Amino acid sequence: GQNIDQPTEMTATEGAIVQINCTYQTSGFNGLFWYQQHAGEAPTFLSYNVLDGLEEKGRFSSFLSRSKGYSYLLLKELQMKDSASYLCAVTLREGYQKVTFGTGTKLQVIP
Amino acid sequence: ETGVTQTPRHLVMGMTNKKSLKCEQHLGHNAMYWYKQSAKKPLELMFVYNFKEQTENNSVPSRFSPECPNSSHLFLHLHTLQPEDSALYLCASSQDGTGFSRYTEAFFGQGTRLTVV
Q1: Which of A24, A104, B35, B70 could form a disulfide with A85 if both were Cys (CB 3.0 to 4.6 A apart)?
Q2: 8 Å CB contact of B56 and A99
């Protein structure tokens, strides 16, 4: 089976940097997604990592270590609108459409 | 607006009712998905359709019955549901059936909030 762990909740201050971690145990790992979901809205795509390393996209960066089964999402210059749930999800090499999600991390940005 | 529209946004139904959830995507995608999102639980994949053919049924009870008449529309027919089926039901689509990837990211609808009483 697959197991994905993320912190349930985090709080950070506007303008600061926050790192949301995700660890996974799975066989046949292919890649890892990060999605953002505001309350009552659809999840929206943030990033997809297949290779080890850091990928930067504006204020958001995502890191993957395949050997450690570990990823993080880094949010810089936090804004109030970044308050949302952040979902980590993995895909497998086989059954590639079976994207498995973690429970999500609810981030609250405070002034 | 993500290009994936779900109706209704909210639904309250009794355990003996029959209702249907509708999903429509305007993105020209060929793969569509149903997910269930319950409080404090991960998104759970329910069904996958590729080019109108069901390719995945993730051990979903038969009281949930999907239908995909064409690549743009997906339905979830509901009957004799249980209170524990109350959840947010999300529809998603992706470019083609080769799976989620950087180039075939999933686009989600805003979901139907279902309450079974």
Answers
A1: A104
A2: no
